[in-house]
Each structure stands twice: as C-alpha cells, then as structure tokens.
C-alpha cells in the first residue's frame, strides 16, 4: 500500500502540461478509432476463395472452376425461370426468351407486390430534353415494324443505330416475329458496314439517314431488299420514299415514322401472344477484335442471352439487385453483348432505362449521363480510364490527397465504402460529374474484352474509381462467343493487392464454368502452385456451348480469374 501511495504521489508530482497534452491526444485517438471503426461489408473469408475448383481434373487442364452460386454437380444457370401466373411457387419455370423480357417490362410489378413499380424508358436528347416512352407505344412499334418487315419477306434484319428506343424495339420485333436480328456496331467506315452486311447475309436494314452509306451499299450489296429509315424530328419533312434515281430500284424504302403513322393510333398496342415452346431466331453480333482485324461474327441464341441475363441478375447480392427504383444507363453500345445483356436485365427487373445516342461513341462520361441521374451505368474501359486520368490530375492539394488516402484506407483495409466525412468535402468538387444529381450512382459496370485492345484497368484504378464515383465497381471479362460476361468481380470486393498494378476478374458468373488448358510453359503444376493456360469457357451462355478465348489466364490464390 505504501509503495502504491508513493508511486501515485510521484506521478502526480511530475504531472505537467505535457502529460495533459499527451493523455488528451491518446484519448482522442482511441475515441476516433472507435467511432470510425467500420464493419467490413462482406466477411473476408468469402473473398479469400471466390470460386470452387472441381475435385478432379483432366490431363493437361486445370480443375473446372465455378462461382459459388453455381456449385459443382448442379446445372449452370440456364435462364430466367419464367412461371405462368398462378403456377406453384415450387414448380420450375421456363428459361424464357427475349419476348418474356419485354412482356415483364410491360407488365411491371403486380399490385401489392413489393418493390412496386414499372420501369420507365427514356430517351435523353440533351440536358433539357428527356422523353419518356410509354410501354404501349413501344409495343405498338414492335408490332408494326415486325409486321412490315415480315410482310416484305425480310428475315435477317441488320440494326445499324446508336443506342435508342428504336434499337430496342427492332430487337424485340425480331424476337416476336421470329426474325434474325443482326446488331452492327455503330459509327463504322463504309467498307466495314458493307462487309458486315455481306457476311451476315442481311436482307433488311433499320438505320438512320446520315449514318448509313445508302448509295454505296445498294451498289455493292444487291441482296438488300428493304430499308427502314429512323428519321429524327428535324428531317421528318423529307420524303425518304424517294429513292435516288439509278440506284436502289429493288430496295423497298420506308420510314419508321410512316410505318407507325399510317395506321390508327390504337392499332397494335396489345402484346402479341406467342408460342412459348418455340424459340425465336438468334441474335448475331459483331465482336471488335484488334484494330485492323476483321470483326468476329457470333451467333447468340435466345437461350445464350437469357442465361446471361439471369446470371447478371443473380451476380449481385439480393439487397442490391436492379429494382424499379433504379435508373439504368448503358453508356456503352448496345451492339456489344455485355451492355445489351445488362440492359435486358434492367428491363426484366422493371428498372427504368435511359438511352442516349452519344453513349458508346463518345468516351466522356459526363456527356453520356447528361440530363439524368442514373443509379447504374455500364461504361467502356476507355471512358473510365479517361475519367480516372482526369480526376487524378485534379487531386493536387495536400488535403485532397490526405482525404483520398483516408478513403482508400477505408476501402482496402476495412472493406467498406467510404462514408462522407469532414475530410471528403475537400474531394467532392473534384469528383467526375456523373448525372445531374451527384451521389445517385450506386453501381458501375466496366468490362475488358478478351483479345481486343481495350485498356486493362488495374486494381488501383478500380479502387480510385470507387472513391471518385462513390459507386461500387464491377469489373468483368467478356469474350466474343460468350453472352454477357465470363467472370466478374464481386460487388463487395474492394481489395488491392501489392502495389495495385495487377487486376483480376473475380469468379466465373453462374451461367458458365471456366478451365485453363496447358499452353507452352503456362500450365497447371502438379502441386497446384501455379494454374495457368488458355482460358476455356463452357455453359449455356456460350455460343456453341464451348469457347476457347485465345488468351492466357491464371487462377490466382483467391480463386479469381486473371490474365497471365
Ligand atoms: C417486375 O415485374 C414482374 C411482372 O409483373 C414481377 O413479377 C417482378 O417481381 C418484378 N420485379 C421486380 C424486381 O420488381
Ligand atoms: C414496297 O412495299 C410496298 C408496301 O408494302 C409495296 O406496295 C411495294 O410493291 C413494294 N415495292 C417493292 C419494289 O417491292
Ligand atoms: C422460328 O423459326 C425457326 C425456323 O427458322 C423455327 O425452328 C422456330 O420454331 C420458330 N420459332 C417460333 C417462335 O415460331
């Protein structure tokens, strides 16, 4: 007792202003770290092993990897599980096709079922001009355009349009009228357009005046029978039925507006009834490879597409799925399968969809999101890299750098999206402007195209993008023969490895399984220490069932797929 008493007295005797300062600082630090302590959004164990390898493997190949929502021994995700009204909750539904996607988008969520609502379909023409399209009027366009094309004997319909409601209506018209839709990448040189038409054997083209080299196509592609111009408001008065003399005698030219205006407004607004047991025709896409190489033509069946849509719907945690509260914007071209599949997923979830014709042709995210406040965006890696470079260039002040460091720490160390704080105010004005209401964006999709020259985004860049946009970022690997994506990072995966220059594509999505075939020195080691080789994808979302991607990949220690 005596000793204790002496110790205390000497402590108090030595107490001075420094001690007070030190203790106060210590208390403040402890309080701060307790108050700012955040739970990781997902248990780190779930990110440490993201895919399951099959217990056995073939000679010269890696084990077969699947994401955790499609365990081995179970069928892969093959479709939308569409049930007829009144069907038992436990019955298995159909895989469905594009017609079911449109039908669900038209019907919306039934009364009394949460979350209630019906998505809107918007065309964005500028910051002041956003047009809402009624589902009935799009259904009417689907019916009338489909009727027109089939009555003229069309069967293979090339769509050469920017992202627009006419693009989607023509695509759905092809499904309802059992025509082959051919999605041509927009804004291509004349010779490329002609070559794509020749290779696909299109007999009908739906396009916009000014964008499509009509004279040249008519001369060099005599198989063209029918052409439908989508005329914008400004040039409606021109008589597009007047085919220039000398050319085009055999092509039946009409305009979208005439086809719709020539029949009474009430006609054709009912959804066509359809034979669900028969699958409508395929969708042909052109996959851009390295510059200077011919595009790869790929035939995706309706089954490929719906399985990819379904895989996207289940790839995000259920509390964050697309819902009627979302506004989805494809800022990449709908002629690419990944943006297309996500757009179909948004329609199927009754989310609103905004279409902007500059999307895909401009790499400016602010321009693509003008006039609206999207919550979910799919953008190209070129666009996001540009955004990253521009925003990083603005992070010059010391306080902004500290704020950025704190936010990065929250993401990478704590596994949680940074919350707004005193410090983050200093970076708010540096954020890229995405949409009219800052902070609305919640999810951003970006995809790397295998075998094309798209810039790869590093883990570090993706982490920065999460901070700059305030949104979760999903990074996917896409390939020509696979509808949607092959693999994609998980919603809550914010990790950055080492110096952050590497990147990975998460686990395979639920519509495919992936394995690697030995190639030269890239092989699966006996002891499993390295797993490398040609990426091979198999499953219902793959055109023809199996595809070799022609690129080398590896399975990392956390069982995610990455390039070698
Ligand atoms: C969308 O509407 C359909 C059809 O009415 C409904 O079955 C479905 O649950 C809705 N989906 C969402 C995500 O609200
Ligand atoms: C073009 O279509 C119209 C309306 O369907 C039809 O009357 C006409 O005969 C067609 N012309 C040609 C050249 O096929
Ligand atoms: C569409 O046409 C193909 C033949 O080209 C046929 O096999 C298929 O059953 C048809 N689908 C529908 C929905 O009629």
What's the architecture of the largest domain, going by CATH? Answer: 3-Layer(aba) Sandwich
State the helicity in percent bands. Answer: 25-40%
**Major sheet: size, sense and barrel closure?**
8 strands, mixed
CATH topology group of the largest domain? Rossmann fold
Q: Indicate the proportion of strand residues.
A: 15-25%
Give a count of the beta strands, DSSP E runs of length 2 or more.
21
Stretches where pLDDT falls below 50 for ≥5 residues?
none
Q: Report the principal-axis shape.
A: globular
Radius of gyration: 27 Å
On the 0-100 scale, what is the average pLDDT?
Answer: 89
Bound molecules: 2-acetamido-2-deoxy-beta-D-glucopyranose
Descriptive keywords:
564 residues, 2 domains, 16 helices, seven-stranded mixed β-sheet, 31% helix, binds 2-acetamido-2-deoxy-beta-D-glucopyranose, eight-stranded mixed β-sheet, Rossmann fold
Summary of the model, kept short:
The chain has 564 residues and is an alpha/beta fold. Helix content is 31%, strand content 19%. Helix 5 packs across helix 6 (165-176) and helix 13 (381-394) packs across helix 16.
Write the layout of secondary structure elements.
Elements lengths: L1 H13 L2 H19 L8 H5 L2 E3 L11 E3 L30 H10 L13 E4 L5 E4 L1 H17 L4 E5 L4 H12 L3 E4 L6 H11 L3 E4 L6 H7 L5 E4 L22 E4 H6 L21 E5 L8 E5 L1 H13 L12 E4 L6 H12 L3 E5 L8 H4 L7 E4 L1 H14 L3 H15 L12 H4 L14 E7 L9 H11 L2 E8 L2 E7 L24 E5 L14 E7 L7 E10 L5 E3 L1
Parallel strand pairs: 3-13, 5-6, 5-7, 6-10, 7-8, 8-9, 12-13, 12-14, 14-15, 15-16
Antiparallel strand pairs: 1-2, 3-4, 10-11, 16-17, 18-19, 19-20, 20-21
Helix pairs in contact: 4-11, 5-6, 10-11, 13-16
The structure holds 2-acetamido-2-deoxy-beta-D-glucopyranose (NAG) (3 copies).
The site of one 2-acetamido-2-deoxy-beta-D-glucopyranose has 10 residues, from helix 4.
InterPro entries: ANL_N_sf (IPR042099)
GO molecular function, one term: long-chain fatty acid-CoA ligase activity
Organism: Pseudomassariella vexata
């Amino acid at each position: 007792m005596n000793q204790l008493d002496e110790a205390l007295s000497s402590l108090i005797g030595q107490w001075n202003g420094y001690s007070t300062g030190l203790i106060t600082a210590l208390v403040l630090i402890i309080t701060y770290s307790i108050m700012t302590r955040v739970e990781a959004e997902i248990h780190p164990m779930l990110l440490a092993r993201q895919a399951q390898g099959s217990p056995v493997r073939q000679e010269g190949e890696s084990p077969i990897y699947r994401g955790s929502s499609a365990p081995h021994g179970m069928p892969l995700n093959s479709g939308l599980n569409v049930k007829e009204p009144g069907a038992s909750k436990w019955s298995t539904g159909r895989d469905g096709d594009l017609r079911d996607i449109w039908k669900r988008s038209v019907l919306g969520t039934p009364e009394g079922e949460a979350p209630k609502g019906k998505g809107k379909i918007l065309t964005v023409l500028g910051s002041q001009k956003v047009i809402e399209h009624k589902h009935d009027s799009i259904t009417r366009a689907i019916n009338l355009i489909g009727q027109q094309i089939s009555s003229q004997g069309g069967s293979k319909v090339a769509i050469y349009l920017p992202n627009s409601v006419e693009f989607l209506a023509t695509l759905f018209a092809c499904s309802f009228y059992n025509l082959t839709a051919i999605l041509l990448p927009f804004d291509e040189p004349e010779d490329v357009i002609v070559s794509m038409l020749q290779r696909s054997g299109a007999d009908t083209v739906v396009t916009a005046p000014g964008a499509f080299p009509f004279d040249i196509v008519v001369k060099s592609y005599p198989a063209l029978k029918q052409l439908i111009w989508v005329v914008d408001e400004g040039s409606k008065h021109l008589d597009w039925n007047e085919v220039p003399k000398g050319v085009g005698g055999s092509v039946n030219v009409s305009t979208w507006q005439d086809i719709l205006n020539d029949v009474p407004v009430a006609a054709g607004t009912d959804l066509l009834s359809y034979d669900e047991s028969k699958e409508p025709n395929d969708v042909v896409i052109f996959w851009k490879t390295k510059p200077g190489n011919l595009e790869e033509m790929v035939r995706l069946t309706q089954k490929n597409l719906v399985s990819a849509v379904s895989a996207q719907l289940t790839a995000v945690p259920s509390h964050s799925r697309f819902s009627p509260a979302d506004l989805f914007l494809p800022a990449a071209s709908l002629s690419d399968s990944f943006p297309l599949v996500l757009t179909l997923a948004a329609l199927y979830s009754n989310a609103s969809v905004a279409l902007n014709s500059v999307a895909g042709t401009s790499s400016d995210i602010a321009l693509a999101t003008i006039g609206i406040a999207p919550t979910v965006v799919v953008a190209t890696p070129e666009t996001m890299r540009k955004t990253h470079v521009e925003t990083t260039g603005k992070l010059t002040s010391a306080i902004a750098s500290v704020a950025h460091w704190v936010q990065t720490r929250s993401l990478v160390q704590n596994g949680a999206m940074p919350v707004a704080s005193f410090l983050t105010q200093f970076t708010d004005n540096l954020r890229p402007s995405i949409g009219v209401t800052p902070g609305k964006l919640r999810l951003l999709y970006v995809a790397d195209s295998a075998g094309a020259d798209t810039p790869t985004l590093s883990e570090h860049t993706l982490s920065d993008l999460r901070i700059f946009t305030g949104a979760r970022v999903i990074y996917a690997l896409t390939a020509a023969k696979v509808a949607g994506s092959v693999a994609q990072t998980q919603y809550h995966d914010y990790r950055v490895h080492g110096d952050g220059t590497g990147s990975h594509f998460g686990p395979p999505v639920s519509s495919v399984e992936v394995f690697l075939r030995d190639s030269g020195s890239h092989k699966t080691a006996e002891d499993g220490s390295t797993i490398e080789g040609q990426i091979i994808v198999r499953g219902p979302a793959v055109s023809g069932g199996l595809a070799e991607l022609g690129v080398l990949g590896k399975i990392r220690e956390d069982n995610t797929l990455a390039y070698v």
